[in-house]
Specification:
The longest helix has 30 residues. The chain has an eight-stranded mixed beta sheet with strand order 3-2-1-4-5-9-8-7, with helices on both faces. A two-stranded parallel ribbon has the order 6-10. With 404 residues, the chain is α/β, with parallel strands linked by helices.
């Protein structure tokens, strides 16, 4: 209240109750969120013109993460997976002796690991799907939902917010004919990892083909008389095993294999973003006990983090420092110091601008990260190579009739 009163003299009420504040947040958060996101996006495009596009594309990656919530009835009704919601609770047995209770407790304690995982899965958790701008490290858009939310459904909702000539990078969970077709129908490009859960065709003959040309055309799409999706298959190697990627950019002169490898490696930055959000910024578990309030809490946490990252990235660019060197811990310390000392004149070298320009990570290379709280790479759910077959004669005939 004191900081707000200093920034906006005469516009902040002298007193306000917590309940009244939450009531106002519930009313205005949806509108303010959209307005602030529009302002953030315009600033990203205008303030960082050289960073906004890479290889001619506005490059985004999409991924999801879970956030813990207090186990309350409100959260259980909204944020637990659908199969656990509204389950009837077992009635308590009356007249149970202390000895019987201890026996039941011992039996419960000896449950299998499968039962433990089931109990863990029934916990209320919030799912965040983020559309993350690769070259600036800033969140472009996001969606919230229960822990069993669909990342693909969330991304479809966010496609309209993308600028023209965008390239979306996704892992092996972002596959499927209808999903990829929705990206292409939105006039955007894609770069997706594929595995053994994907079936591709060769030699369908609908375009001028190269050795990398493949088609995604499942049986369901063929029966619905939908045209095949023409893609380009790139095989990389991460040092341990081959990595299979498909992209809608068919011309390797427009985007070479080497550039595709660089783009896919930079997708890892979104894992660091989630680490900063949940650990450095302290939003690994929300405090609100009400589901509606938790939704508001997370939206404003993401908006606050986005605003601070945007300002810090701007200050670093003023002294020719790349966004990849930004230290979120130092950035938060700088903002907290400025808020605590708002009523004092900053000493030389201690202004917010100077603190943010110094908010960088150190340059030495750490050899062993096992002891550090560092994000680990997840094992892909669809490991192995995609199944690739040669198109049959009937498939070629059907494809020509649909494409012509």
């Amino acid at each position: 209240m004191e900081v707000a009163s200093t920034i906006l003299p005469g516009q902040v009420p002298a007193k306000m109750s917590y309940q009244a504040f939450l009531k106002m947040l519930r009313r205005w958060t949806p509108q303010l969120r959209e307005l602030l996101l529009i302002a953030f996006r315009s600033q990203i495009a205008v303030v960082f013109p050289k960073l906004f596009r890479l290889f001619g594309f506005a490059v985004f990656t999409v991924d999801g993460s879970r956030v813990d919530l207090p186990r309350t009835k409100s959260h259980e009704a909204v944020y637990t997976p659908a199969k656990y919601r509204n389950l009837p609770k077992k009635p308590k047995k009356k007249g149970q002796t202390r000895k019987a209770k201890l026996k039941v407790k011992a039996v419960k304690g000896s449950r299998s690991s499968a039962s433990a995982r089931a109990r863990q899965g029934s916990k209320p958790m919030m799912w965040i799907t983020t559309l993350w701008h690769v070259t600036t490290g800033l969140a472009w858009n996001w969606r919230l939902g229960p822990s069993d939310s669909s990342e693909r459904a969330h991304l479809r909702e966010m496609l309209a917010s993308l600028p023209r000539r965008s390239l979306i990078i996704g892992d092996a969970g972002f596959v499927g004919y209808d999903f990829l077709k929705s990206i292409l129908d939105a006039q955007q490009q894609l770069l997706i990892r594929v595995g053994s859960n994907v079936r591709l065709l060769r030699k369908l003959g609908t375009v001028s083909e190269t050795s990398q040309t493949v088609y995604l055309w499942p049986e369901g799409a063929q029966k619905r008389q939908q045209p095949p999706l023409v893609l380009r298959l790139i095989v990389l190697h991460d040092g341990r095993k081959p990595v299979y990627l498909v992209t809608s950019i068919l011309d390797d002169n427009q985007l070479s294999d080497a550039r595709i490898a660089e783009l896919y490696r930079r997708r890892w930055g979104i894992e660091l973003y989630y680490r900063h959000l949940k650990q450095t910024f302290g939003r690994g578990k929300l405090r609100s006990c009400n589901a509606e309030n938790a939704d508001i809490e997370m939206h404003w946490a993401l908006l606050a983090l986005g605003a601070m990252l945007l300002r810090t990235t701007y200050e670093l660019r003023q002294v020719d420092i790349e966004p990849s060197r930004l230290s979120v811990a130092a950035m938060l310390k700088a903002f907290r110091s400025a808020m605590n000392d708002y009523h004092r004149t900053a000493k030389p070298g201690k202004s917010l601008q100077e603190r943010l320009q110094a908010a960088t990570i150190d340059m030495y290379t750490r050899k062993n990260k096992a002891s550090r709280n560092y994000p680990r790479k997840h094992t892909e759910t669809a490991a192995g190579a995609p199944v690739i077959t040669t198109a049959a004669k009937l498939q070629r005939q059907l494809a020509k009739t649909l494409v012509s």
